[in-house]
Specification:
Helices cover about 40% and strands about 15% of the residues. The protein is α/β, with parallel strands linked by helices and about 220 residues long. The chain has a single domain, classed as TIM Barrel (Alpha-Beta Barrel), CATH 3.20.20.70. The chain has an 8-stranded parallel β-barrel, surrounded by 5 helices. Helix 1 packs parallel to helix 9.
């Protein structure tokens, strides 16, 4: 199993963001955050490439690992990792990770979104390094993804991930109050979007999450 850049993955969403994404990313980095996933896949191509470039420069300044949602070309251009949607877990689409690795820099990560413990074996078969399992708790960010899976499902997924060599990150409704419980259930870390995007003080929110995650030793 590959070592992840951080126990905390911060996912961007400018529609929820209280501040410009670059300001949020800067605040997270200043607070010690070291892994950012640039999502915002609905941006027009040129604007998305330009914003990816600015976030990549910011990440480089702070020693932060950058992942890019879906777009392998943009990820490769900036030496970033890539995160693929759950559709690539479907039969006939599972070669995406191997194709991505041909374009990405050595050591880049390939992640995939998962929505059930049973997805972990398929993620391993496609060659993913990690999955985000969601929604673990009820979430206002993506309410259409069904009922919360809960910690028992996270524990089941984490066991499957350990056996298959795939890290499992808990996503959906994650806060500083429940992040530690996700680690105790076996998750390698947590992924957070709305809790930081909507925060008046995103750096403070990131610091609180990092402190909660650090309270559990490796």
């Amino acid at each position: 199993m590959k070592t992840l850049p951080s126990r905390l993955l911060v996912i961007t969403d400018r529609h929820q963001a209280r501040h410009p994404l670059e300001d949020i990313a800067e605040a997270v980095a200043q607070a010690g955050g070291r892994w950012l996933l640039f999502r915002d896949k609905d941006l027009e191509t040129a604007a998305r490439r330009a914003l990816a470039g600015r976030l990549a420069a910011l990440a480089h300044r702070h020693g932060m690992h950058l992942s890019v949602s879906r777009d392998v070309g943009v990820a490769a251009e900036h030496g970033a990792s890539v995160h693929l949607p759950s559709q690539h877990l479907e039969p006939g689409r599972m070669k995406a990770a191997a194709v991505a690795r041909l374009a990405l820099a050595p050591g880049a990560l390939v992640g995939v979104s998962a929505h059930a413990p049973g997805d972990i074996a398929r993620a391993a078969a496609m060659g993913a390094d990690y999955v985000t399992l969601s929604p673990v708790f009820a979430t206002a960010s993506k309410p259409g993804y069904g009922p919360a899976l809960g910690l028992p499902a996270l524990e089941q997924a984490a066991r499957a991930g350990t056996a298959a060599g795939v890290a499992v990150l808990a996503l959906g409704g994650i806060t500083a109050a429940n992040a530690r419980a996700c680690l105790d259930a076996g998750a390698a870390g947590v992924a957070v979007m709305g809790e930081i995007m909507r925060a008046e003080d995103p750096g403070g929110s990131a610091a609180g999450l990092l402190a909660a995650l650090a309270s559990r030793p490796d």
